[in-house]
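INTERNAL AUDIT FORM
Audit reference: QA-55
Scope: verify that the stored structure record matches its stored sequence.
Auditor: D.O.
Record contents follow.
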Amino acid sequence: MSLKSKKKAYKFTFKSLIRLVIFALIIYLAITFLASQKFHQEEANDPTVLGTEIASDSAQIKVETNLNSLYQKIPANSRQKIETLNTNPTVVFVQDKFNQLKSQANGFPDKQIKEIKKAVVKSVYDDMIKSIDGSK
């Protein structure tokens, strides 16, 4: 004999209303508190805010100077390898293969959709022919 739990019918009471109002008030206060917070000084100098780039020349210059200083810290033989990387036969081979794959994949989803539609129509056609031949 299995014991089944009996579910009680839910009643929307005054207590439920009070809990809902308190919850909504807490969420509203949390959102307004977080929205009123000021950005820190570090975030004010960030060239990107929420995925949009700030049109600030000073931020762009700062990024360029940081990249240049990092590039100058790399040893000379490593810098030379980085500069001649695009002429490396392995890199050229990989780029050629990548371009070849891109050209072959051109229109791939459309081709697949057409093939699937053809297969569905052919399957329905074969099923209809079988049902007609089976009824004789």
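Auditor finding: record pair retrieved intact. The mean pLDDT is 82.
Action required: none
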